[in-house]
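Notebook entry, structure prediction.
Reason for the run: the old model in the group folder had no record of what sequence produced it. Starting over properly, with the input documented here first.
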Amino acid sequence: MYKKILIPLDGSKNDEVVIEHVKTLALEFKSSLTLILVYRLAKADDPFERQMQMEDGSSGYRARLRAEAYLPKLEESLRRQGVEVVTEFLIVEEPEAQAIVRYAREKDFDLIALTNRERSPIGNFFFGNIEEKVRRRSTIPVLFVSEGRSQEERS
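New structure, fully documented this time:
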């Protein structure tokens, strides 16, 4: 049913929630997982400006270092549990949601799995809601996994 599952990560504790849930699906359906971290470059017409966003000390450089430390740990852990997994750090110029949907379509994924984070309307206004944008734009099924907080914590 689901042979290729894409999990866009954000580097937060929410990653563990969605990975744990989707790992069960992967083992059941013998699916492969692809974990991605997306870094969006600021819009720049000049190739030199784009390159500078990834130079030593830049936010892009630091994001790459975090990904290089974070993704292999996840990959190793999942492989030890019998899950076929690939990880990738994507550097994009387009909005993150658009990049995720395009990547999923181009690589023929059967499912996109995301954490369903609850945000206030103000949080959505300032930070956006990538998950909702992916849901609206994707022709591929999207699975939302709850953050796992108890009912009392949400109140």
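Summary: Residues 150-155 have pLDDT under 50 and may be disordered.
The old model has been moved to the deprecated folder.
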